[in-house]
Amino acid sequence: MSDTFDVIVIGGGPAGYPAAIRAGQNKLSVACIDGWKNRDGGYAFGGTCLNAGCIPSKALLESSELFHRAQHEFKAHGISTGSLAVDIAAMQKRKAGIVKGMTGGISQLLKSNGVTALQGRGKLLPGRQVEYTAADGSVRTLTATKAVILASGSIPTELKSLPFDGTHIVDSWGALDFETVPARLGVIGAGVIGLELGSVWARLGAKVTVLEASDSFLAMADRQLANEALKQFTKQGLEVRLGAKVSAAKVKGKSVTVSYSDAKGEQSAEFDRLVVAVGRRPYTEGLLAEGTGVTIDARGFIDVDGHCKTAAEGVYAVGDCVRGPMLAHKAKEEGVMVADQLAGLYGHMNYDVIPSVIYTAPEMGWVGKTEEQAKAEGITVKTGVFPFVASGRARAMEASGGFAKVVACAQTDRVLGVHIIGAMAGELIAEAVLALEYGASCEDLQRTIHAHPTLSEAVHEAALAADKRAIDMLNR
Ligand code: FAD
Ligand code: AMP
């Protein structure tokens, strides 16, 4: 193997592996070094997303959702099942199979695109050199003639007073690997990850309590959507305690007692398992040698400009280790952008149009500005909301909760944001992403033909409702 490449990528998650693949497609010689190790000690490409994040969590969400529907919805369809049981071991086996298939697929993709895939650790040295420590401990110095791309990702934030113990107090990865359904599950943090994992185990039968320090539920979301979500979760039995600041936890025997303070004073709660989901932090340990010129901000993110250039010549950083939302699709597009720039091609990210999806049931998906953000910016807005209860397809699916909401500028008609809560919101939001990317007006959405009967008609009708011209509901 040569020790010199055009491009060396450190990290093989959703930021790193697409950067390497695109660089390969662009006829650059490229190496991708990844150090992810699974619990069995084996290396696997794909990073957090494929091994311990997006994919395993969605596998379990799907299984738990099917169980929940069989329990609660089949009857309405006239289907009786007899008694239902959950086999967690089988569910986990299915999840592991999906992860294995997907991570193996990445190794194949890297190979097919001419990428030299290296498993082990990478450390940036000054002057676009990389120290590569292989699995067997051997060390080599590699050189990148064009660029090094840092894509080292993020890790769960640990609360000092509640260190992870791997059994009772776990991070999100631990919560994806439970072997039994905990009778009482505590989740600290009502962010995306906390809600998704809480939903999984609640649907499988756990009594889930989510403790959230903020007084506001899903502060980053449109208020109307967040209020609807809280209403639906509460109805499902997921207890969300807002304004609950967790300060400590004590494991005694088989249970863990959590101390927290809220408006009423000091409180405590007892659980069988506790998931700490208070956010993630950029991971850069052992990544940078002295004198590379790469700088790190106060929160630990690698400093980059709008095109992911670091302060060091020829060194870029992408994905969770840099500013912006910690999302796999954001990471991927940044990686691709840099790989295209390096080949002299056009590479650009539109940071204003990054969709957010929360894969609970109901799902939530949004893009662009919330109604509150638009108003705070002094924009006169018009909004249209179409409830799924008025959608024939949603009714047929026994999924009539939630709505689609369009936020547009009253003066220019431009669509500013779309917010959806309901079945398949994560799929439905794609149309809105395209609309915002193309600078669509509300009228553009209104004049676009949507197939009937589909859930997507809700977006169409919401756009019509913004001008009080909805057909399938009363315009108020
Ligand atoms: P990572 O995926 O963390 O990958 C970084 C890789 O670099 C890792 O393999 C790491 O081992 C390796 N590495 C680090 N340092 C070195 C080094 N020095 N040498 C060699 N290798 C190194 N996002 C979504 O968009 N949708 C979702 O549904 C979603 N669900 C999630 C669910 C959970 C439970 C979690 C935890 C996260 C979820 N995310 C989701 C977030 C998503 O996983 C991350 O945004 C994404 O993985 C970031 O990609 P990345 O490549 O920047 O980092
Ligand atoms: P996210 O950053 O989206 O993953 O969400 C993490 C959530 O955890 C945020 O909503 C925080 O307010 C919440 N959080 C952080 N620290 C604590 C704490 N000590 N107790 C309760 N909630 C917390």
- Under CATH, the topology of the largest domain can be stated as FAD/NAD(P)-binding domain
How many structurally independent domains? 3
What is the assigned CATH homologous superfamily of the largest domain?
FAD/NAD(P)-binding domain
The percentage helix is 25-40%
Cofactors, ions, other ligands = flavin-adenine dinucleotide, adenosine monophosphate
C-alpha termini separation: 69 Å
Mean pLDDT: 97
- How would the global form be characterised? globular
Beta-strand level of the residues, as a percent range?
25-35%
Radius of gyration, in Å, reads 24 Å
How many beta strands in the DSSP annotation? 21
Biggest sheet strand order reads 1-2-3-4-5
What would you call the structural class? alpha/beta
Query: Major beta sheet, specifics?
Result: 5 strands, mixed, barrel
CATH class of the largest domain: Alpha Beta
In CATH, the architecture of the largest domain is 3-Layer(bba) Sandwich
Compute the number of helices: 13
- Spans of at least 5 consecutive residues whose pLDDT stays below 50 are none
Index terms:
binds flavin-adenine dinucleotide; FAD/NAD(P)-binding domain; binds adenosine monophosphate; Enolase-like, domain 1; five-stranded mixed beta barrel
